[in-house]
Specification:
This protein has about 325 residues and is mostly helical. It has helices spanning about 15-20, 30-75, 80-85, 95-105, 105-140, 140-155, 160-170, 175-185, 195-225, 230-235, 240-255, 255-270, 275-280, 290-300, 305-335, and strands spanning about 80, 90. It is built from 15 helices and two strands. α4 (about 95-105) packs across α15.
Length: about 325
């Protein structure tokens, strides 16, 4: 018998093969679980990173916006007037301020006036801005640059400086508007355009639209640049007119930009204050030309009734949330898809 016969190979240790005892893996854990557990932990860490990055911003927002909002909400349930400004404790009155708001016909008149002014200005701004965006898309490079620079200059002008120019233009003594109308044959000498509420709000609407049109035009133009020229050329070759291309192709493609621009304009025009206040100081009849912003200012700073002013501010906030809720909900649905 040969002595060189090889001994049979030792059977592998089943514990090493299974990784349950003494193997290279973690004791007591199957290989599949070993590989998936670190992956889950890594995914959890990656999911936490965005929240950690926005946490400082959320803290700043809560500190800068949360405290004033909480103070306003608390004050709206109190009688907070001149006595409270000199140290007297405010008196809790519950819903009395809100009840007084909703039974006051002046408040309803101001609310309706504010909503009408807001909608007229917002939709007019978006319409004019959209036409300017289409114009910038069609003209040559030089004309487009001149138009864009002009819009940027108008948009970048400080509000007080712009209002100073507008007040000078419509001044009833030395205004350019009256001078120009007189030269054209109209009897406009000494006419005060701010004395009547209709002409007051017409001028205010022109100023608000003029200030807001550059933002809308440039935003919509940026959306138009993302539309493929091949699609428009194919539609033109198929016989689509210019109006049909705008209605059936351009508008649906820029609808996301158009909706957010319109929403922002409605919110901004509902909260308009500086333009109305400066026009009132220039000669407008204050009690007949109040909007929500100037009415809150009059209640708080003018009359010292901060409880009522806070209540009107909360109502204005609720209206703003109601207006923007549809768009926010549609955004949330898009994110959930």
């Amino acid at each position: 018998m040969s002595t060189n016969a090889q001994a049979p190979p030792k059977s592998a240790d089943p514990t090493r093969k299974s990784g349950l005892h003494g193997g290279p893996g973690t004791p007591g854990v199957a290989p599949e679980r070993q590989s998936t557990a670190p992956g889950r932990r890594a995914r959890r860490r990656r999911n936490r990173i965005p929240f950690l990055l926005i946490l400082p911003t959320l803290v700043i927002l809560l500190g800068a916006l949360g405290y004033p909002l909480l103070w306003q909400l608390t004050t709206s349930f109190q009688e907070f007037g001149l006595k409270q400004q000199f140290g007297q404790a405010p008196e809790f009155v519950g819903l009395a301020n809100y009840t007084q708001i909703f039974v006051d016909p002046t408040m309803w008149a101001i609310l309706g006036r504010s909503l009408l002014f807001c909608l007229v200005c917002a939709f007019s701004t978006v319409a004019i801005g959209g036409l300017l965006a289409l114009l910038m898309k069609r003209v040559g490079t030089v004309a487009r640059l001149i138009l864009q620079v002009s819009l940027l200059l108008a948009w970048a002008m400080p509000l007080v400086a712009a209002m100073t120019v507008w007040v000078w233009l419509i001044d009833w003594r030395r205004g350019v508007l009256n001078w120009l109308l007189t030269r054209l044959g109209a009897d406009a000498t000494g006419h005060n355009w701010l004395a009547e509420p209709i002409t007051f709000f017409a001028i205010a609407a022109v100023i608000v639209i003029w200030i807001s049109v550059p933002f809308v035009a440039l935003s919509l133009y940026a959306g138009l640049t993302q539309i493929s020229e091949e699609v428009l050329e194919a539609a033109a070759m198929d016989g689509a007119t210019g109006i049909q291309r705008v209605r059936l192709i351009i508008l649906p493609l820029v609808a996301p930009v158009l909706s957010i621009v319109l929403l922002l304009q409605i919110i901004w025009d509902l909260r308009v204050f500086a333009q109305i206040k400066l026009l009132q100081d220039a000669g407008g009849v204050t009690n007949e030309t109040h909007l929500l912003g100037t009415y809150i200012y009059q209640l708080g700073v003018g009359s010292g009734n901060f409880g009522m002013a806070s209540a009107v501010s909360i109502v204005m906030l609720l209206i703003t949330v109601a207006v923007s809720w549809y768009y926010v909900r549609s955004l949330m649905k898009e994110e959930a898809k």
